[in-house]
Amino acid sequence: MLDLKTPIIIGRGPADAKKYGHRGCILLGKKYQDTDVYKSELSNPVFMDVSGAHVVSIFGKRGGGKSYTMGVIAEGFSLLEEKVKKNLSVILLDTMGIYWTMSHPNETDRKLLEEYDLMPRSVKSRIFTPIKYHAEYKKKGIPTDYPFSINPAELDTDDWLVTFKQDKHSPIGVLIEDAISKLQSIKQKYTLQEIVKEIRDNKDFSHDSKMEAVSMFEVADRWGVFGDISTDLNFLAAPGEITVLDVSCYATEPGGWDIKTMVVGLVSKHLFVSRMLKRKQEEYDQLKESTSFFHDGHNVDIKKKEHNDMPLVWLVIDEAHEFLPRKEEDANAATEPLKIIMREGRQPGISLIIATQQPGKIHTDVMTQSDMVLSHRITANIDTEALSLLAQSYNRDGLISAMEELPRIKGTAVAFDDANEKIHKIRVRPRISWHGGGSPNALTML
Fold first, then answer.
1. How many Å apart are CA 397 and CA 415, to the nearest integer?
2. 441 falls in which pLDDT band (50, 70, 90)?
3. Are residues 28 and 105 part of one domain?
4. What CA–CA distance (Å, rounded) separates 407 from 77?
5. Over the stretch 128-159, which tens digit does the pLDDT of each residue have?
6. C-alpha span between 405 and 385 (Å, rounded)
7. CATH number of the structural domain spanning residue 100
8. Residues 320 and 435 both lie in one domain
């Protein structure tokens, strides 16, 4: 049975915890309580607040449980009460193709789940696959629900230049900017072929420069993510839904990470802008309601609930050091949009969950903007030093000792947050749905 001791709520301050309890929170696991010098036992349930905007960082060594913990958090949204859930949307950027298994219950850990008053169950999700691979996946029986495509007009000049790693002042950079600017001035949507034609027809640049630029767009065409009709990116953020954007098809593609960063950057930028516009509308509605003397309060409330077309968004990204590299010269198409979300996402209501096995190599904004941290065991000096910077304001030494005291079993982690400034040793609960990120083992195949 679930421990009835006072729950610990990561990311929610004492006043709100007293007012709301753990409503609008997901169950992460249980806290380790030291019973003597050599022994710890599981005690208080540990929850994580998802009702407000947060930046959550998850750290750990390879195979240490990061992807598993991300799955626990993602499926936790499906367990929220309906009134809360419909105001939230989860989008998983799946770089390894491991989250399609959420549709299968985790029968293996049934006994362990009973300790949390949980049962194995499938978790409904919507899987989007790049349009080039969608039909192929369907034919092979690989789970996918919708094709994902981008019209080239969705990208501005800077997006292309960062993706192609070109300086904006170079001949190729100026050539691409010229072609994009001309098309943007006359069309709302256009194709890669039209970009190529503009480049070829430009008489102000050398043949070599034009051929090099053309080759870049021809390579982009082979990525299979661009189409005449683009996916409505707002459709990714469906109220009460878990969406998986599967870009694992590019794992072995030449320049695969360039494609992934471009997709993540575009989606992140669009969602941020959409939530900014939605937030203005929400504030206008609140202001109108509070200043009107003649409105029907009941009807106003119904209108708000019926027109929640852009809910609060939780963006979940693994391998975050690839999208948010520490060195500015390694920045990519996703870096700036994600930095903006970390710095400014709280006001419009867009949250970020990022995981990495290399906290020492991730952008410093992750360290300064994260307000919740879950760290599985890490041992490299560069990573432990980076992690200690996050907690130095309240207990650097306590963080290091807590990490060393973690039991040597999977799922253990230290958790701390800005709202409470306390460090907890926890064990992440078992998944209710099947985890697709486990490592194969020759012995288990016998």
1. 14
2. low
3. yes
4. 28
5. 999 999 999 999 999 999 999 999 999 999 99
6. 17
7. 3.40.50.300
8. yes
Q: Are 146 and 220 in contact (CB under 8 A)?
A: no
Per residue in 21-55, pLDDT (tens digit) is 999 999 999 998 865 545 567 889 999 999 999 99
The vertex-136 CA angle with 135 and 142, nearest 5°, equals 100
Instruction: State residue 314's pLDDT score.
Output: 97
* Structural domain range at position 263: 8-149+231-445
Instruction: Quote the number of domains for the chain.
Output: 2
Per DSSP, the three-state class of 153 is helix
d(CA 43, CA 427): 10
**Tokens of residue 256, six digits:** 């695969």
Name the average pLDDT for the chain: 88
CA distance linking residue 168 with residue 244, whole number of Å? 33
Which of these three, 191, 222, 253, is where a domain ends? 222
pLDDT computed for residue 304 by the predictor: 46
Evaluate whether 212 touches 205 at the Cβ level (below 8 Å).
no
* CA atoms of 147 and 225, how far apart (whole Å): 9
Task: Give the Cα separation of 350 and 341 in Å (integer).
Answer: 7
Tokens 């050091």 map to which residue?
Answer: 321
* pTM, to two decimals: 0.89
